[in-house]
Input
Amino acid sequence: MQSRRGAGALVGAGFADLDMQATRTTDLDGNDKVGTICRALRRAIIEQALEPGAKLPEDALGERFGVSRTIARHALGQLAAQGLVELRRNRIAVVATPSWQEARAAFDIRIELERLVVRQLAGNLSRAQIAELKAHVDAEEAARAGPDAVSIRLATEFHILLASMTNSPILIRYVSEVAYRCCLTLSLYSRPHSSECAINEHRAIIDALAAGKADDVIALMHTHLDSVASRALLSPAKPRERDLLEILAPYAADESGAGKVRRKADLNGGASE
Amino acid sequence: MQSRRGAGALVGAGFADLDMQATRTTDLDGNDKVGTICRALRRAIIEQALEPGAKLPEDALGERFGVSRTIARHALGQLAAQGLVELRRNRIAVVATPSWQEARAAFDIRIELERLVVRQLAGNLSRAQIAELKAHVDAEEAARAGPDAVSIRLATEFHILLASMTNSPILIRYVSEVAYRCCLTLSLYSRPHSSECAINEHRAIIDALAAGKADDVIALMHTHLDSVASRALLSPAKPRERDLLEILAPYAADESGAGKVRRKADLNGGASE
DNA sequence: GGCATCAGCCTTGCATGCAGTTTGGTTTAT
DNA sequence: ATAAACCAAACTGCATGCAAGGCTGATGCC
Output
């Protein structure tokens, strides 16, 4: 046994069912144990089982996945390279907590990358591929009954599925990475997910892709991603649990006027600094 | 000591002067030993001291940099995540050898990303930043006398310098990564580097940025990168040492001409051993 | 009572050791 | 002589052990 104390940090985070699942994505990670941990952690992150800021001690990870710290450490390094984890020297790794500006930048990048995807794909999809896309959207539809986390993951994976049809490893990788990053930001800034419109937009994109109308697809994808970003990032700062100092600011100075809600949050809220 | 055989693989690769240099770039890598090795290796790769396909045994790396295999391994993992190194299970890591299609895709992505950069930067640069850019181009100019490798590196770093002025960590990172990848492909497919035009184009971009004419800058950057890509990737396939089968094809049927060059050494020797 | 100091544990940083896989040369059988 | 089999060295995959740095709670001082 190697755990000392931190094991508890992860135990409650909902790992029960995603240990060895390690399904597709693409091949952002290898096929070895490191890759397994990466996929499991990423999935936990994008499904919000691990919220931004959650601690990821090497010991606990290693114990949980039945590997040594060495491997857990390596996996954290990979996830850090993908921007999902923050690694500070001599400190416990944590799930990344992108700022609002970073989130916005990620969406901007994503829009450009996915423009490349649909530009290349428009009119070049096989019948089987179109069927696969439609099946995925059907799965999204079905998942509306389930938890939001799954809907969000499926919506993200729709875009990754699209990218994977380009057969361009680089494009696939960057789209995957940035899509996951965007997905991560949703858990930070987005209000309860409303997926119905996204699903319709996905269907529209598929139709336009099948019709081969490149310009239309590009426009559709752009507005789709833009609206996703807008829904997610509407308020320049809606720090859920991000900055303890900001959260507690309203409570800080009101020893007297107990009923008041001092909107200190506007400070970094409006200015979006 | 820990080297067994492969130590020699790297000794001849020109590491003498780039061990602990570990200059800026941005913060693609950490500040620790792993980051040091990453930066050194990346620099060796983009300066073509390590050609695509060169072997990178963990032992040799560790010995050369005075660290254990663990660290060397981690560094290789990071570089693999950035696409500069290829990692196959149970096999020696090698410098990445992107296909022509991948190279083209990398340039396409780069064009989009750098469009974001200049769009954001146009008209928003301080006097000091403009001076810094001009100084960099001057350095490029000065480096024309030196080896091509340095010119290529400086040209790449001009773009990274631009990106770093956006203050968007994500954009900086992706531009850096993809720029390095493109730089790597130059050593595969490009003919002897001709840098004079690139330098002029860089100056033009700076001027347009300073003038704040966003559309002009975007167009300039686009044509600049496009021409770089064209110069580099003009011939859809010019495999320098890539495909052993292709290289040896001419030699296949001539047992008679014995006085020819003893190509045995170039087989795997040209790259690493 | 409040604040600075400090000690001990938790955690990371890194090296080393062992086991399994690949490699390339040698041996052996045809 | 050729090709299959084999064997030893090299290399990777991974776990473990030790030292150093950060965090937490306790102690002492103001």
Observations:
- Chain A has a mean pLDDT of 79.
